[in-house]
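Attaching the record inline, Q. Sequence:
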Amino acid sequence: MSRQKKIPRDKTLDGTLTLLRSDGYEFIRKRCQQYGTDMFQTRLLGKKMICFGGEEAARCFYNPALFKRKGVLPHRIQASLFGVGGVQGLDGVDHWQRKHLFLSLMTPAKRQDILTLTAEEWQRAIQKWSKQETVILFEEAQELICRAMCAWVGVPLAEEEARARAFDFGAMVDAFGAVGPRHWCGRLARKRAEKWLASLIEEIRRGAVSVSKDCAAYHIAFYRENGHELPPRIAAVELINFIRPTVAMSYFITFAALALHAYPAYRERLQHDDDFLEFFVQELRRYYPFAPLLGARARHTVIWHGYRIPKGSMVLLDLYGTNHDPRIWKDPDVFRPERFQSWNESPYNFIPQGGGDFGNGHRCPGEWLTIEALRLAVRFLVREMTYTVPQQDLHVSLTRIPALPESKFLMKQVQPVRAGVTV
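Structure, as predicted:
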């Protein structure tokens, strides 16, 4: 029997402030490099955590027989980003049944409906931007996606409230890696959104609001679990789980504009090469920081590469570090879309929104939509509009979670190229 190895311990008493204010996305990667291993132990929020990264770590992490998600999410993250009682915190049959609801509403035909609505919002937005002196792309992208998704899920959205609702969905995401005002802003935003949508669920159930029987709002309102409809607040949480992650695509859209500005040579190829458009979008998701890490708890004692992970241990998987692992990606800190021409499509080495199996695991059911919507966004940025990029602070700090260019990407002199685009 091989001898068990001792998991290196981080020297810091508690790494929470270092994670949030100093190392950010590189917290796990830096320590793995320091200790010369793919695994170490630390404390975060006063609790013991085992951190690891890389393709083999992801393969282990996403084995449902070894790790579970239920009871893992800290309350502060549930209270802002995910909501209490949502699908992300379930396991086993409960998770599979709830996730099947999401997957059943993310068919190719339904995703095409979302893309059609999103394209209409892009066209509308460009016309509006052409009359503005300066456009803040990140904020505008949040609003246009929010409009499209609310229309698709069946949530009535008055013209005058669209921007405020988009801000609330965005604030939930912005609170994920924050302490202080940003975190509390996200918690308040979630309370407002849950109250608004729980009321809508109740109105749909009693027939006071009529929505299509094909829309997500209807399916969630009348979804039954263990023979009972979901409590209105939980139903609201799951309705938010359709809208919030798509609004979060505004980060990738902003990074897309940043990449087009930083690497202008790719613009010409993107004008006509749809295959390369796919590679460009995938490299956006790999290269730029989005989700930093994910957590799970060991169902029983796990032996991984000679290290012993005790039953009940909290484990954190390094998403950003895995997407920048030099054992997987040549020159990982270089933006190079061409690398995806030969990617092996492993569900464990490219995990910007998590990894593993779509059907049985916790991999984001909206990942397909993210890729398709980003392809659409890049097509609009490259083929359907012109704009100039004024002097601004485009620095992206890896200590800010979620990361974003300081200026949120400013554009001037926006003009449409033609009247519409086929999706």
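Residues 181-205 form the longest helix (25 residues). The domain at 13-414 is CATH 1.10.630.10 (Cytochrome p450).

More tomorrow.
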